[in-house]
Amino acid sequence: MASRSIHPLLKLVLEVGPIAVFFLAYRMAPVPEGLGTAERQLEQILFATAVFLPTILGSLAVSYALTRKLPRMAVITAVVVTIFGGLTLVLRDDTFVKMKPTILYALFAGILGFGLLRGQLYLKYLMDELIPMRDEGWLTFTRRFIAFYVLLAVLNEVVWRGWGTDVWVNFRTFVLPLANFSFVMAQVPLFTRYAAPAEAAERADS
Fold this sequence. Notes:
Layout: H1 8-27, H2 37-67, H3 72-91, H4 95-117, H5 122-127, H6 135-186, H7 188-193, H8 197-205
């Protein structure tokens, strides 16, 4: 069955919505009175994670129902979220959900770095349908992507280990998405410079 496109605003809601739900669930979690700070934060994280898991899987299901395809990176992210979110709930240990961004960013960086060692551009395989570029552009973008994701992995570890759960939730909800968006926007000159021939011709005709 042929894939279909969806409105960019709806696509944004499907991508960012689960993160917003996680934040709201954390802030509005029903917590028993009289708990200390650590116990209160743990209960909030457990509640937010329990809400977040079905939300992100539901978002993926809606995306597939509307487009008849699933973004590869979104699928990988959902798998990692499910594993580490499940461990958080089963073991009642928020270390797993806090380390999830670290593992995810390190995983992507490691996979892309392994691809470069093999002379392959895995990022092109993941995102070529969104960003048509020549291989020279994908090579530069991949190198930048690896460095950026290693930086985010380190930052996530510093924040959750050094500033506690409340600060980490804000960092996870606002800083990480904004950092990813800013990074992609900063690459627009690269995308334009190495646009695939068909894309370049379209720009010249317009």
